[in-house]
Amino acid sequence: MIKPQIPLLLISFFTLLIMLPKSTSARLHPRRDGTPPSSSSGGGDGKFCLSWRLGVEANNVVAWGTVPRECQEEVESYMIDGQYEEDLDLVMQQIFSFLNSIPLSFDSFDAWVLDVDDTCLSNLYYYKTKRFGCEPYDPVGFRAWASKGGSPAISPVLQLFNKLLEKGFKVFLVTGRDQETLGQATINNLHNQGFIGYQRLILRSGEYKGQSAVRYKSDIRQKLEKEGYRIWGNVGDQWSDLRGNSTGNRTFKLPNPMYFVP
Amino acid sequence: MIKPQIPLLLISFFTLLIMLPKSTSARLHPRRDGTPPSSSSGGGDGKFCLSWRLGVEANNVVAWGTVPRECQEEVESYMIDGQYEEDLDLVMQQIFSFLNSIPLSFDSFDAWVLDVDDTCLSNLYYYKTKRFGCEPYDPVGFRAWASKGGSPAISPVLQLFNKLLEKGFKVFLVTGRDQETLGQATINNLHNQGFIGYQRLILRSGEYKGQSAVRYKSDIRQKLEKEGYRIWGNVGDQWSDLRGNSTGNRTFKLPNPMYFVP
């Protein structure tokens, strides 16, 4: 009965080894060795991909075309194993807590702005076929997907939408989708997912073709303010939804590590 | 030799169980069950604390006084086990790549703005004594720490600083530290850590007392622009360093989950 305990011990040892965090020594000092910033794969792909995703969400990583190949697994796991939904929920808690602090005027000019793609409607199914953003943007493929009008609602955002209406806000949905080719499909999709009762859906009309989302959306929001609306909150999955002019009293960045809109 | 294989199999089975991700079923649909956003502890403290930290870095979680108690371990591990440094490195890569794209004028008006606390100089040692931000802000304690002038440089930022000087930028250090009480200690600390050759160190003078960092720093940057400086980049660990007016062509948010400056 002695021999069989050896593999047992060995397995326990290797199990422990595998499960230990990569570095257990506390490095309290920021690195002082004068080495330049590490290469893209840094301290292992796992850590690099976490950094990359944080960089995207904090608007440090911009104008990227595709998810780094080595991060496909990380992004896929993030999107489908629960952390994405957890992150969404936390943003919603922040929004609800802000909502309760707003002194409403009930003059029909208290407004909120919501983006559509990956804010109201999820394109996760589509991006699954694009290796979660590892494949370059495919305008024809995306148009075909969006034309079907089958994107599911992002449930916490639908709840927010209904809460906003209930409280008396005017909700403006502002999207970079092309009005001519995707207008009707978008109206249908929002309706079949329960986004009913918004003040206005604003799609990209001809005059804004080719403009960056920051400029186009800033212009739209400025026009809303000129109409007298007070934009209390502005929610989007891209920093281009939230930057520029007339951004609103508070902006809320929903997570999206799958693509970048300039 | 058959019996001993049973514990072996059992151990392998439990090892596998432990190492499997919490949920292996791909939840491609955002939650559609109509439940309200989950409570603060959400899907377990680990997930919640990741969400909270992301919320801080994306400027969704604002005006918070202390790190949530249940997140002390997560924040501590983040700061000392390497991910913080990895995240810093990634931001630096983005900055260096931006730097190389800037068309310099060599007229002495190409400028960068850097914050000081937890941008140039690390207060990690101090915050270790404050349970990594779980204890409320202690102005007396912080002043005592800062007065010593012993905060270590954040090495990648020191490298950036030297690269900026080498390229010919004018570097402005803009800090919310009180000029009267911390001016000399800050000058000494920057010097003893190698921050030598900056254009100007701007501390909070009497006229800005009590103002939010966003207003104070916006005002300083506007004055720099009025002097003719072009602010190409603006680096800070707080969103209040990066928001407001004259924010610079690009802003870079360094990670800091330990405290919030309004």
Automatic annotation (TrEMBL), chains A, B:
Residues 1-26 form the signal peptide. Keywords: Glycoprotein, Signal, Storage protein. Gene3D superfamilies: HAD superfamily/HAD-like (3.40.50.1000). It holds the Pfam family Acid_phosphat_B. One of its GO terms (molecular function) is acid phosphatase activity. SUPFAM superfamilies: HAD-like (SSF56784). Belongs to the APS1/VSP family. May function as somatic storage protein during early seedling development. This is Acid phosphatase 1.
